[in-house]
Design a protein that fits this description.
With 267 residues, this protein is an alpha/beta fold. The protein has helices spanning 24-34, 42-50, 69-73, 84-91, 111-115, 130-142, 160-166, 184-190, 207-211, 230-235, 253-265; strands at residues 4-6, 36-40, 55-60, 79-81, 99-104, 120-124, 147-150, 175-177, 194-198, 205-206, 217-221, 238-241. It has 2 domains: 4-104, Ribosomal protein L30/S12 (60s Ribosomal Protein L30, Chain: A), CATH 3.30.1330; 111-265, 3-Layer(aba) Sandwich (Alpha/beta knot), CATH 3.40.1280. Helix content is 33%, strand content 19%. Strands 8-7-6-11-9-12-10 form a 7-stranded parallel beta sheet. Strands 1-4-3-5-2 form a 5-stranded mixed beta sheet. Helix 6 packs parallel to helix 7.
């Protein structure tokens, strides 16, 4: 059972995991060095715990203790109880959902283990916005995709903002990072997947046609600004586009993912 510890000073060293949560670069460094991630809000904390992640500690306003009592009862990590004003002073923002947990990261699984048994996979290249990554995970989970693979430069799915936007689905959808960016798509083809790149290339066909009759499919999505690199665009087995009205040639990558996942799920 978690020990409840009242804390009244923002300088208390035990709160180090929760400092400066709005400083993205600093948090990326701290979380990588310490092997941790932050879960925010009752639902997300519950889902992280249900997925088997071990808590390092909890940070909660008093009114959230009862709602997360069962999570606290099943953990040996300390729970730091602070006022909402103090939580804002430590974290740098208003913690309106009242509860935070510092969780221990686990080693990333191998690509082979993530792909085992999968039929529908999302493959992300250089998507750097944490909100977009979280939204893509949520789309994939909602529409029955089995796994997500990320190129090395993609944003961290376990960054607090990604987790929050994904509503914790980053804990339920298997994912990992690709070891080799250059040969990633040929590797997927050898594993039996038809790679379908969303791109404005001249030989792109409607997404419905690109996935028709395909058994194992890997939807390939590029960065927010420039889309896919030439390497990934050209090595994909098929190129696809979402048909749109004249004057609009693209959607935000998260919105495009939702449409493409819906069509692919119905193939």
């Amino acid at each position: 059972m978690a020990q409840l510890i009242d804390i009244t000073s923002a300088d208390d060293p035990r709160l180090a995991d929760y400092r400066d949560l709005r400083d993205v670069e600093l948090r990326k460094s701290i979380e990588a060095d310490q092997g941790l991630f932050l879960a925010e809000g009752e639902k997300v904390v519950r889902r992280a715990a249900a997925a088997g992640f071990d808590a390092r500690s909890f940070l909660m306003a008093p009114r959230w203790l009862d709602g997360l009592a069962e999570v606290l009862d099943s953990s040996e990590a300390p729970c730091y109880v602070v006022s909402e004003k103090l939580a804002e002073e430590v974290t740098g923002f208003h913690v309106h959902r009242g509860a935070l947990a510092s969780m221990q990261r686990r080693p990333l699984p191998s690509v082979d283990s993530v792909l085992a048994g999968a039929r529908s996979v999302l493959v992300l290249e250089d998507i750097v916005d944490h909100t977009n990554v979280g939204a893509i995970f949520r789309c994939g989970a909602a529409l029955g995709f089995d796994a997500v693979l990320l190129a090395p430069r993609c944003a961290d799915p376990l960054y607090r903002r990604s987790i929050k936007v994904a509503m914790g689905t980053v804990f339920s959808v298997p994912w990992t990072r690709l070891d080799h960016w250059y040969d990633a798509l040929p590797m997927l083809e050898r594993a039996g997947f038809t790679t379908v790149a969303l791109t404005l290339a001249e030989d792109s066909v409607a997404i419905e046609d690109a996935v028709a009759g395909v058994d194992k499919v890997a939807l390939v999505l590029g960065s927010e600004g420039h889309g896919l690199t030439e390497r990934w665009e050209h090595t994909a087995a098929r190129r696809a586009i979402i048909p749109m009205h004249a004057g609009v040639d693209s959607l935000n990558v998260a919105a495009a993912t939702a449409v493409a996942c819906y069509v692919t799920a119905r193939r």
